[in-house]
Design brief:
single chain; 0% helix; mainly beta; 5-stranded antiparallel beta sheet; 174 residues
Amino acid sequence: TAVAIGSAQITGTYDGKSAAVTIDVSGLSSVSVSVGDSSLKVGETTSATATANYSDGETEQVTASWASSDANIASVNSSGTITAVAQGSVTITGTYNEKSGSATVDVAALSSVSVSVGDSSLRVGDTTSATATATYSDGATETVTASWASSDANIASVSSSGTITAVAQGSATI
């Protein structure tokens, strides 16, 4: 049974003859934590993994105990699944055999949504498409699937996919 890090020579003797073998015992040096995505938007999830780094240079993925520096920003469950809750930055820590490692996760919140249309002047019966773009607190933007509504469906209707149809003369807000 290994009792400490280092090398030991084990000798066996039988009928006056001996043989020896050297045993090298390595130990856990550190734990590294990595996350699938270090930049999340509120509501998104990613996974954390822990890697044990041994004194002999070997590594292995291990099951760690997980903690978040602020679960109000991002929580982490016992499996290492991180859920973004609110805007901010947190440290996710994984602990294995009394050694810990950590990674930072930044969470961005939705700042605004803008809508653009292919053509804002239509003739009765014409169609165009609406697109919604979300802007986040970190400056990132992405096209998103919006819930669409018309201020007057008798003038311009809009489908769930954002297709706008001119129904009658007038003005409507999408």
